[in-house]
TrEMBL record:
Its cofactor is FAD. This is Flavin-containing monooxygenase. Its EC number is 1.-.-.-. The keyword Oxidoreductase applies.
Length: 440
């Protein structure tokens, strides 16, 4: 066989997903050139790099991380870790965010990734260009980046891994009359710690992970918290005094908030824990035949690649997953595609599969904003990717522990983080006896 030149990969972002992409690209030097990682900040870690400031960096770009000071992970380290890189044994199962940042730094060291990262370099444009004669019809990607000192640079690649994260751009659902609200309006993206909320009345919108966690933090500094949401009642420890209400449907002219059940309240602060928008300012969606909305990117074959351009990969756009495991499977699948190990279906077949899948979900009543939620379906998805890509799928013990953690979290969304687990083998885990002391 004629020896082809090696594949050149660009990675946008040096968070967990980008580092994972780099680690696996570097593991196959016969096929791939060392990757180029573009990172707009001066550090790796993305979300896990705690940034006290809110608003913008000195260079005017919006602050990336939504991490808050006291966050502990909502997954135990046993199911958070990259499969080939465990967390330190001495750490408790549920980690403070600083331990995750340290973990990513060690990952970077072990796989010798750092010197492939171009820090302070923002990707401004990613554009497919066809160079039919040279590459036999394959697409080449033009990546235009700009360094903090203002220098623009253009490089070409055979493949692009989009790892820019999707927990940075606040999603703010419109509330009729919001202009009448006299208090402070805030999104969880700009929440860092509870002290400024002491003795204040706060309506928290949304009862997903951050809505629940932040409500608990606020209640502990004596804020009067109303958790407003449309989901079934969350079981919260009664001593915290957190009230729950239906969704806020509007703000009255006198500034009070009206809930769906008709009741009305006043509040000092309205805190949106309503999630984040997808944002790929460096892409032209129409050019890629993609529909990119606030809460949906489609069509993506295997939630990963646009059928019309199967050499650009969107890592980690699914929700309710074990992110690091998810990234690892997606990256291995993507590399198998680039290596030619996976023969993808035709463009039409991939489009049909994606549309069929979305249609099935919609027929089951899944709302558009939830189409990318995987949750229990993630394990079947990993198996599917692994089978096609010929790599080892995540162990069954991970799914089993994931389900256990869900049960514990539902029972007590505060205390579940005191538990410590240990993986015994491929199918079994155990609960360790001594509860962790650090979570209180
Ligand atoms: C508050 C919070 C709590 C979480 N808790 C957990 C948890 O307990 N367990 C868990 O597993 N996951 C958790 N997550 C999910 C978390 O987002 C993932 O674990 C993971 O960090 C996502 O990695 P990423 O690489 O996709 O994105 P990010 O970590 O966001 O990294 C993206 C990187 O891309 C860079 N970038 C963006 N745009 C550009 C550009 N144009 N050019 C160059 N660089 C760019 C950014 O600067 C950033 O460094 C949490 C998320 C949040 C927000
Ligand atoms: C909160 O209220 C308590 C009780 O009224 C008071 O002692 C305390 O000083 C208040 N704290 C702040 C920061 O307002």
């Amino acid at each position: 066989m004629k020896r082809r030149s090696r594949v050149r990969v660009a990675v946008i972002g040096a968070g967990a997903a980008g580092l994972c992409a780099a680690r696996h690209v570097l593991s196959k030097p016969e096929t791939f050139d060392p990757p180029v990682l573009f990172e707009m900040t001066n550090h790796l870690g993305g979300t896990w790099f705690y940034e006290e400031r809110v608003g913008t960096y000195d260079n005017g770009y919006p602050i990336h991380s939504s991490m808050y000071r006291d966050l502990r992970t909502n997954l135990p380290k046993e199911i958070m870790m990259f499969p080939d890189f465990p967390f330190d044994d001495h750490l408790p199962s549920f980690l403070h965010h600083t331990s995750v940042q340290q973990y990513l730094e060690k990952y970077c060291e072990k796989y010798d990734i750092a010197h492939h990262i171009k820090f302070n370099t923002v990707v401004e444009k990613v554009k497919p260009i066809s160079m039919a004669t040279e590459t036999g019809g394959a697409v080449t990607w033009e990546v235009i980046s700009r360094s903090t000192c203002g220098e623009q640079n253009m490089q070409t690649f055979n493949s692009v891994f989009v790892c820019n994260g999707h927990y940075s751009d606040p999603h703010l659902p419109y509330i009729p009359g919001i202009e009448h609200f006299k208090g402070k309006v805030l999104h969880s993206h700009s929440y860092r710690h509870p002290e400024p909320f002491t003795n204040k009345s706060v309506v928290v919108l949304g009862a997903k992970a951050s809505g629940v966690d932040i409500s608990i933090e606020l209640a502990q500094v004596n804020a009067q918290v109303i958790l407003s949401h449309n989901t079934p009642t969350v079981s919260l420890p009664p001593p915290l005094g957190i009230r729950q209400a239906s969704a806020v449907v509007g703000v009255l002219e006198d500034g009070s908030l009206q809930f769906q059940d008709g009741s009305v309240t006043r509040a000092d602060i309205l805190l949106f824990c309503t999630g984040y928008n997808f944002n790929f300012p460096f892409l032209s969606p129409s050019e890629l035949a993609l529909d990119i909305q606030d809460l949906l990117v489609a069509p993506l074959y295997k939630y990963l690649l646009p059928p019309s351009f199967p050499s650009i990969f969107f890592i980690g756009i699914c929700k309710i997953i074990c992110p690091f495991i998810h990234f690892d499977c997606q990256v291995k699948f993507a590399l198998a595609v680039l290596e030619g190990l996976i023969k993808l279906p035709t463009q039409e077949e991939m489009e049909m599969e994606v549309h069929g899948e979305m249609q099935r979900k919609q027929d089951k009543g899944v709302q558009m904003k939830h189409l990318l939620n995987l949750d229990r379906d993630q394990w079947g998805y990993y198996l599917d990717l692994a089978k096609m890509g010929q790599f080892t799928p995540p162990l069954a013990v991970l799914e089993s522990l994931y389900e256990e953690v869900r049960r514990q979290r539902q029972k007590d969304p505060q205390k579940y983080r005191l538990l410590n687990y240990r993986l015994i083998d491929a199918t079994q885990w155990e609960l360790l006896e001594a509860p962790s002391e650090q979570a209180d």
